[in-house]
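Researcher: Go.
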Amino acid sequence: MTEGPSAAITVDSATSAAWVGAAGTWVVGGIAALIAIMQYLSSKFRPKVTAFREETSGRLVVQIDNRGSGAGVVQAVSLTTPAHLLRPDVQEVLYQWEIAGEVSESRPVPFGLDGGASAQLFLRIDPTDNSLMNPFDPAGNRYPLDAVRVRLDYGAGERSRCIAMEVVRAPVHIEGTTYIPGCPD
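Model: Structure:
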């Protein structure tokens, strides 16, 4: 056997089997950790919010889909303008609920949403309402309805999601009424 950089390294079969076994254990452990993380994430309350507005009116539909298998509570649904990005104390956009096809003063929040369930909320905004005023515009112009965003507060109040609305162009008309699973009409 020669000494130095050209020396041959011999590995017996027991050593190589131990390394293959150790590598296999690490691979199985990594896959198990990945599965555990995926299970944890899917067992939570994970609402996905989609909002549409009719172009010809201030009628909105907010679709809340729980993509997780865990139940959760929707604490509040609010409408905001871009002014909230600069000053959170700016008044939220006022709206009315539409329940059973009629404008209603009742607000069915908070409400629970089971895993895999979805709720459909119909809201109406008055485009001439003062809550749409731009507080940073000296001319006193209003924000357009396209600038309004939907904010959903859920859980214990420390979590929220804010999304922009998509505009449904004419002649499409949004049909339906507010539906919350487990709530009486």
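Model: The longest strand covers residues 72-80.
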